[in-house]
Amino acid sequence: MTDLVLLHAFPLDARMWDVPGALTPSLRGQGEPGLDALASQVLAVLDERGLDKVLLGGCSMGGYVAMALLRQAPERVRGLVFVDTKHTADTPEAAANRHAMADRVEREGVGEWLVEAMVPNLLGPNASGTARALVRTMILEQRPEDVAWWQRAMAGRPDSTDVLESLDVPSLVLVGEHDKLTPPDVAAKLAVTLRRSTSERIEDCGHLPPVERPDEFRARLERWRAQVGL
């Protein structure tokens, strides 16, 4: 079976994944903010592990990093898993909001204000107390410099339509039914952009299916991997 690499969402970390056997690198802000820097970090991890080709997945920000990696080294990717993410660039308003949050994090640090700002958009209305507690913990334990860096990196990301249209690998696109940030219609547009995509919606779930519905997420992923031979 192809090695599986999963990249985490903002403003979380590898603890969001409950997928045995997957490589889940931590993404850290280094240098000038840009997703290419994070993609280079992931490629360095693959090199360290001696992994030539992988099944690459990402949730939200992790999906953006996966697309940045595809711009650098598409030959390293045997298949793709995109979870609640999109391939288009930020609107000017969205980018300005990211920069505003980055500025506030640098002024005030990471605290309950960030939890209150993020959780309603990350989790669906029926998310369990366990899921809410895990997301809160992950947010509060992030380094402020990483949170600010990630936001600025995402604000400057390019549209990835041309990169995805040129690929010829199996792709799985998953989206939570109640995702407010990248809703099902956005996921549908991403799936259409990919040549060989399977698109599925996870019911009663928000932006983080691997956290809210980990069993369902793993089952969908494993079924698709068996179908496409990855």
TrEMBL record:
It comes from the Bacteria. It holds the Pfam family Abhydrolase_6. Transmembrane segments: none annotated. GO terms for molecular function: catalytic activity. This is Pimeloyl-ACP methyl ester carboxylesterase. It comes from Lentzea fradiae. Residues 4-219 form the AB hydrolase-1 domain.
